[in-house]
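User: Quick sanity check before I run a bigger batch. Here is a single chain. Can you write out its predicted 3D structure?
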Amino acid sequence: MKIAGLDKGGLVGDILADAFNGDPVVTWISRDPDYPKWSWPLAVPFFLPHNEVYVTEDGLGAALWLPPSVELNIRPSLAVLWNAWRRFGFGSILRFFQLMSTLEKHHPKDRHYYLFAIGVRSGSRGHGVGSALLHHVLQKCDRENVGAYLENAKSRNMPLYQRHGFEVQSEVALPRNGPSLWLMYRHPLHA
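Assistant: Done. Predicted structure follows.
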């Protein structure tokens, strides 16, 4: 496991695009199959400066975390918005901003590490890659006595998160017939 620097941003974006292909939230934003390949490489640079972006040595998995007291701040440029409008339509932009608003509205206020995204390449799931990515930062949470938080849109991922101590705090449906998100929190473990 290593922290991804600027030189690994493209790799992380590629891993997440593969992992989130068919994801309920991503397909709610845009049904265009090119949307994940377009959007994830644009999202990664917002996380890299905080030194909590991880990629496995073999390039099979990646995770975007934010450290305590750093707020999610994905603000696309006008050029990116224009490109999104031309490629994916105005509705995709509207749904993206509705997602960001929903995430912000329900985000916990206490100090915690925030897992924005974790993904494993489609052919490598079920081999412990996701657990390794989680374990790395959750150990840090326990050492620092800080919680961890994530939003989950896939019921099949629930057992993974629960094995690592996350509990569902609430469920929120995205607007405009969007999918539900399970808001999950993990309290630090004390030795």
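Helices lie at 9-19, 24-29, 35-43, 78-88, 90-106, 129-144, 158-163.

User: Great, the batch can go ahead then.
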